[in-house]
Amino acid sequence: MAEAVNGAGKGPSANGFGTLPAATSREAAPATFLGRGRKAQVVTFGCQMNERDSETMRGLLTRMGYALTDETGEADLILFNTCSVRENPERKVYGRVGLLRELKARKPWLKIGICGCMPQQRAEQRRIEETLPHVDLVFGTMNLHRLPELLQRVEETGERVIEVWHEEGDVVEGLPVQRLNGFKAFVTIIYGCNEHCTYCIVPTTRGRERSRRPEAILDEIQTLADQGYREVTLLGQTADAYGRDLGDVDLAGLLYQVNRIRGIRRIRFTTSHPKHVTPRLIRALAENEKVCEHLHLPVQAGSNRTLKRMGRHYTREGYLELVERIRRGVPGIALTTDLIVGFPGETEEDFQETLSLVEEVRFDGAFTFIYSPRIGTAATRFPAEQWVPAEVAKDRIYRLIDLQNRISLEKNRELVGQELEVLVEGASEKEPGKLTGRTRSNRIVVFEGDASLVGRLVRVRVTGAQTFTLEGEPVRRGLATAAV
Ligand code: SAH
Ligand code: SF4
Ligand code: F3S
Start and end of every TRAM domain (predicted)? Predict the structure, then answer.
């Protein structure tokens, strides 16, 4: 497949290392056959954007002739696609890559690469260079399409290659992709983030918003439908900001168009920033039958003081009012959220407001995080006396998780007896012999069924509820499981 670059590329700011010539264009590298007879492993940390990027890397590697493997021991090339959103995923990368020093000593031809969000931070890039000398290749989120060329340089020069661009170019279309799943797919619709949440590193690692042209997105989804894909998840750090930089399209408009693609049965999108949820988007949720009744709407905190200091640009009251409008517009919609505790300056009273907001909204689920300072973000410059001690933050997150778990369980129990549409995902890991799938509201259901149902939509009656999963039984029509 030929690669195309939309419009003229802006000049990259390449970081040379050793004798490397600086890259001069944003054009994708020509395919090579470097990988013939070699195996490559791609290890992914972080969000769905990273998972989707890893699928592109697998596509590029496959086109170069590499065979893909999940076994580190048999790989000739290992790429770590990294995440910087909190300290923990970064620590894991240093740990895992550090351990490979020994393997590389035994297997000198092994090549190791670090890419994704970590190298986009200059401090982290330096730390990688200094503390992980056995790493051969370092590149950023904006250099993904240059993987073949960079690998070729590693092989040709035998030297370490580092290329991290910090200036967003145009969106590169037409890259090959090797997807992990055969019936549900991630489709990136917008790269980057223009928000300035004071705790968040993502705008640094991903750059400014860049929306893909709707034709490119619709083309990709049409191809997916032709290949038998049933579900698409439209991705962006702020998916609901889609099109702001293009001017002539928005997420609502895109949903109407995707809804018309035959073969696609379910449409999801993530993540949404509350400030971009328009009445038009709510209407699009209600009017497009393929768009699933689930919205991930991170609130982060319940106190106006904290929200203001986080730079979120909405108030508690505004968020609650939005939730009410969404629920009125799309009855029965599932709402999930992200919450941070221990943000600098968060008092017990502030935290109580997060608890009370969670009680009031009754989210269907929530991801909860302890604030993790990220170098270069505004919140790290708040006075040291405002920092919340680790034990206090831990105590808060436990209380918050307890509350949310109780609510999740209660909400799941309300579903017992209902008949729901489930997209069958595969064999249950916890309950051998059973299948697992997801409802339109994104709940996991475990039920008995034949493996031939994987990738299909079936009807399941909910028979039991736990905090994170539902149990069910397939609804039978005649002898067969009812397909949808
Ligand atoms: N773009 C998305 C999510 C970005 S990262 C959005 O705005 O909704 C996913 C979640 O990680 C965020 O919603 C936030 O809850 C959390 N997060 C981001 N930075 C963090 C930090 N420094 N410490 C702890 N949690 C953080
Ligand atoms: Fe980070 Fe805020 Fe952008 Fe989400 S909206 S990626 S939390 S800066
Ligand atoms: Fe992490 Fe980068 Fe995603 S920081 S959350 S992998 S955009």
Answer: 413-476
The whole-angstrom distance between residue 151's C-alpha and the CA centroid of its chain comes to 25
Which amino acid makes up residue 483? Answer: A
The maximal CA–CA distance of the chain, rounded, in angstroms, is 71
Show Cβ contacts of residue 11 under 8 Å, excluding neighbours closer than 6 positions: 167
User: pLDDT tens across 18-32, in order?
Assistant: 223 333 344 444 556
Continuous H helices in 37-163:
48-63, 87-106, 122-131, 147-157
Instruction: Check: CB of residue 424 under 8 Å from CB of residue 449.
Output: yes
Domain boundaries, the chain: 3-163, 184-413, 419-482
**Which residue has a Cα nearest atom 3 of ligand 3?**
47
Residue matched to tokens 């379910």 = 266
Nearest listed ligand to the Cα of residue 237:
1
3-163 has which fold? Rossmann fold (3.40.50)
Residue 117 known to bind ligand: yes
Fold of 184-413: pyruvate-formate lyase- activating enzyme (3.80.30)
Instruction: Indicate whether this model's pTM tops 0.85.
Output: yes
CATH superfamily assigned to domain 419-482: Nucleic acid-binding proteins (2.40.50.140)
DSSP 483: B
| pLDDT for residue 476 | 82
